[in-house]
Amino acid sequence: MNHEIYDLMLNHKSIRSYQNKKVSEDVLSRILNAATRASSSGNMQAYSIIVTEDENLKQELLAPHFYQSMVTEAPVLLTFCADFYRMREWLKISEAPENFDNLMSFMIASIDAILASQNAALAAEAEGLGICYMGTTLASAAEIAKILKCPPNVIPVVGFSLGYPNEKPLVRDRLPIEGIVHREVYRTPNVQALRDTYHEKEQAGMKRYQENSELKKRIDEVGAENLAQVYTKAKYTRESHLKYSKDLFNFLKDQNFLNFE
Predict the structure, then answer these.
(1) The domain boundary residue, chosen from 151, 169, 187
(2) Cα 121 to Cα 173: distance, rounded to the nearest angstrom
(3) Which structural domain range is residue 128 located in?
(4) Are 195 and 163 members of one domain?
(5) Is residue 96 a part of any domain in this protein?
(6) Below-70 pLDDT ranges, the chain
(7) How do strand 154-163 and strand 130-133 relate by DSSP bridges?
(8) What is the pLDDT of residue 116?
(9) What's the CA gap between 175 and 158, in Å, rounded?
(10) Assigned domain for 151 exists
């Protein structure tokens, strides 16, 4: 059994502060090669990886990534895109039907991209690098795609900053496995089971937010009294998610992924 891979996975930490140290092309190539070995639907590899190291481009990406400091501080940004442009162009020159312009195709390509991203993340950590996934990639997919010059049928779905860590954060809490794993069929939790599942996360999460002056100010502003309210009143509001949903839907339509006939 390879204990090292387990150590990597069980000790994963999001790194938001990086040393001013370039990632060598050899190291980056190994990471990218590992990404391409991920499982893929039909072995189509319906994704593309955009490597961004140019400082001007990173500055342009700062706003759509909600001004997160690691966007410009990290030496490398990796953006994983659901990509059926390459496949559809190949079909065209091969005189094959130009399929893959529908929602199912987007889902397949998104899963491919996410699987590749996790391979890359594990490879990066094996190289002694740190990463931080950015949910802003999907939230700002249209803006990011414009900056990165993505053609039709290409949607940025996930991305992360990459570099040598300049911090040593603690391993973050996770829900207990009993609340996540279901044997044979789904086990619908009752109220007590839900309380048990979220008990430790609630305590650790609220402690973390209360210790950060900026986050505490936001919590006080919205009157959040527990972690569930922090998530829904301060971090992931209904209004913001409806906006992101509408933006993504419109972009999927623009990028030719919403044909139903």
Answers:
(1) 169
(2) 19
(3) 3-169
(4) no
(5) yes
(6) none
(7) antiparallel
(8) 98
(9) 23
(10) yes
